[in-house]
Model the fold of this input.
Amino acid sequence: MAQGGPAIEISGLNKWYGDYHALKDIDLQVEHGERIVICGPSGSGKSTLIRCVNSLEAHNSGSITVDGIAMKDAASVDSIRSEVGMVFQQFNLFPHLTILQNLTLGPIKARGLSKADADARAMQYLERVRIPDQAHKKPAALSGGQQQRVAIARSLCMEPKIMLFDEPTSALDPEMISEVLDVIVDLAEDGMTMIVVTHEMGFARKAADRMIFMDHGEIIESGVPDQFFNAPKSARTKQFLSQILQH
Amino acid sequence: MKPILALTALLLLTGCGAAGNWGWYVINPNTTQGANNIKFLLNGFGATILLSLIAAGMSMVIGLMVALPGMSSNRWVRLPSRIYIEFVRAIPLLPMLFWVFYGLPVVLKSMGISVSIDAFWGAIITLAISDSAFTAEIYRSGIQSINKGQTEAAKTVGLNYRQTMRYVILPQAIKRILPPLANQFIYIVKMSAFASVIGMQELTRRANELVVTEYRPLEIYTLLIFEYLVLVLAISFFVRWLERKMGSDESR
Done:
């Protein structure tokens, strides 16, 4: 849409859960094609932040503009959601549908594609996440890593401009983490704009253009990976990195 | 079917042992009188089944219409559904039946709507409304038992509320809803006996009428109980079969 503007522009964002101040005056600008990794301790608001971007959480004040669309009413939320794909920690595949049906439900019902077109598109993205042979199985028959790759393919089938990943590997067995990260790296290399909430620092060094560290609902530090990992400015960032990188 | 046979045998045996107390002749199919009586009693099946089916169908539709707004995040949308459930659930079936059959036409007439409610529709309306409060709660518990992540995933692939319900939530909820819903249907079948008091010619009414002319309550009511037993067991078997059919393909 608005070619010149940023992909995502968040300013003065506040979110409360009752008395709990989950996001405090967040300002964040994401350029087209930029890959951002957000890390931080649990409860720091990183998931809440990306869930606000596609309005899975309603914010209390501040503004969110995605690809030139300002979030204000239900119609703008619908338009924003059609630009933004999301991958969840728990995969959230539809267990009663086959893999192929999981991928085609959105394109057919929400976008009005014919079944043949939707199937073709789904198979194309299943190839891309390297599991075309599982198309006619139910999600429960797949491993966690495969399920998460299906979830990524399901998002891609909606042909989003921006992808949000909410701890995509946190629910996976260790040996399945890399197969999922590889797919995300592939996407990153193709120039997809993405925000990834993760603790996988190896992945972050490799794929991120910019690192963001959040704590207690605030963005504490933000910078390119090199500087972020080697010379963090904030003491809290240092402490956090030493805790997760010590092994 | 074995327990039924055993029970029947037992009843017949006690009948033989204490001749004089039992008068199975009233429903002896080998005599004209007995055959006619049996035919008269069994003819009530149609009405009981039709009554229960229509009432259950209406209850399922009303229940869903009450349950869905009942889960809204907006309390003003939620409130009417809550009031309906609490109110309807508190009214015993028999007084409601009287009110619908004798009272509702008067209310409608005062509003300028002149309809007569016969026993059949009076019973159906009462059963459907009275049952819908329970069906609504069954729907609610079934739908709320589906992980919130399913709704979120549906939103991110562009589905609206109706599509999310239809393609994602309800197909999953129905498996969990089916057993309590079947329970509720059995309840309707049994409660349909109350329709006899407003003159509906179903199983119980016919038994009552026959008792008055034959004066053999023991035998006739025994047969009546077996009629309900057969009906309910048939429903149970059907639901088991349905559950197996619907539940078998989740992991494939």
In short: The two ends of chain A are 44 Å apart (CA to CA). The mean pLDDT of chain A is 93. The beta strands of chain A are 8-17, 20-30, 35-39, 61-66, 69-70, 84-87, 162-166, 193-197, 210-215, 218-223. Chain A has nine helices and ten strands.
